[in-house]
Design goal:
Layout (H helix, E strand, L loop, with lengths): L5 E3 L2 E3 L3 E3 L20 E2 L16 E4 L2 E4 L8 H12 L6 E5 L4 H11 L6 E5 L16 H14 L4 E5 L6 H10 L4 E4 L3 E4 L1 E2 L4 E2 L5 E5 L4 H14 L4 E4 L5 H9 L4 E4 L2 H4 L3 H16 L16 H9 L1
Parallel strand pairs: 3-16, 4-7, 7-8, 8-9, 9-10, 10-15, 15-16
Antiparallel strand pairs: 1-2, 5-6, 6-14, 11-14, 12-13
The structure holds flavin mononucleotide.
Flavin mononucleotide binds next to β6.
Length: about 300
């Protein structure tokens, strides 16, 4: 059987498949053995209690869904005292996704997590930065560098930076995160979208705009993954519209080292273990011994196309 062992920086994962933040919870342990996954990525937590956005917070679309959950959170103390102990029985690495409204608050929160036994921090920087007029950190290379550097100084834990697809030059943001000391990138969070209800003549989401995820996001996130993987030498974890072994292989070939599965978990809560088996089977069928052998297979010899892409 194909070897799915995957190295993400200093971490060794048993396979490249893990949940995307916000689409996974401990209740999934009732459906499958969580230790069959490469890592367990928790829903984003903020340092303090947060209520989230007005309802409705999700709506279904033909090619996926829109959400404007707004990161409701019980805060860091609750995470440390109540949530993390529940993950102690599992051997899969636990990755805590964090968010805050300033670089300093991000760093303080990361520091408070350093004393726990988590395996990595994923910085969700697609959130508003109060020091930049509420513009998301991940929208600017400068803000990305500042926040990732601040977190880097505050913790020795492996640090993943989760990027946004809503930017013109993702490679610049990726390089800023790498220069600031990120150990890996996650590409991508959701793409900004909107939906209108013709019958009620109103917006479908309480927050008017929301994040597009699911199959419709895949070509965009795949492209961003490729652009970032070309630009940096740290691992890139692909995320967006993954629901099959073929999707995973596409991401690996485009340069991803590992992948995250989001919206597909809502359609089939047991999809992730199925994908682990399906990926091994698909690699076997192709005669590929190790999933890592596929990583970046399309990147060599792509210089000319890549140059055009940099201009666009
Ligand atoms: C309902 C929902 C909640 C989400 N919550 C978070 C979150 O808390 N933190 C985060 O970084 N991303 C969050 N995301 C984004 C996902 O982690 C992922 O980046 C995105 O959905 C793209 O992957 P997908 O197309 O496989 O869903 C959420 C997505 C959905 C659909």
């Amino acid at each position: 059987m194909a070897d799915l062992t995957t190295r993400v920086g200093s971490m060794t994962l048993k396979n490249p498949i893990m949940p995307a933040s916000g689409t996974f919870g401990l209740e999934m342990a009732e459906v499958f053995d969580l230790d069959c996954l490469g890592a367990l990525v928790l829903k984003t937590v903020t340092p303090h209690l947060r209520s989230g956005n007005p309802v409705p917070r999700v709506c279904e679309l033909e090619g996926g869904m829109l959400n404007s959950i707004g990161i409701p959170s019980k805060g860091g103390q609750y995470l440390i005292e109540n949530t993390l102990p529940k993950f102690a029985p599992y051997s899969a690495p636990v990755v805590v996704s964090i968010s805050a409204d300033s670089a300093e608050a991000f760093a303080e929160f990361a520091e408070s997590l350093s004393a726990t036994n988590i395996d990595a921090i994923e910085a969700n920087i697609s959130c508003p930065n109060i020091e930049d007029d509420g513009k998301a950190f991940a929208m600017s290379a400068e803000a990305t560098f500042k926040v990732i550097s601040a977190i880097r100084r505050a913790t020795h834990l492996p640090l993943w930076a989760k990027l946004s697809p809503n930017v013109g030059a993702p490679a610049d943001i990726a390089r800023a995160a790498e220069d600031a000391g990120a150990d890996a990138l996650v590409t991508t969070n959701t793409m900004l979208g909107m939906a209108v209800d013709v019958r009620t003549r109103a917006f479908k989401l309480g927050n008017i705009m929301g994040g597009l995820s699911g199959p419709a996001l895949k070509p965009i996130a795949l492209r961003v993954t490729y652009q970032c993987a070309r630009a940096v030498s740290i691992p890139v974890i692909g995320c967006g519209g993954i629901s099959s072994a073929t999707d995973i292989m596409e991401y690996l070939i485009a340069g991803a080292t590992a992948v995250q599965v989001g919206t597909a978990n809502f359609i089939d809560p047991s999809i992730m273990p199925k994908l682990v088996t399906a990926l091994a089977d698909a690699l076997d069928a192709e005669g590929i011994a190790r999933s890592e052998d596929l990583v970046g297979a399309a990147i060599s010899g792509d210089r000319e196309i890549a140059r055009v892409e940099e201009i666009a």
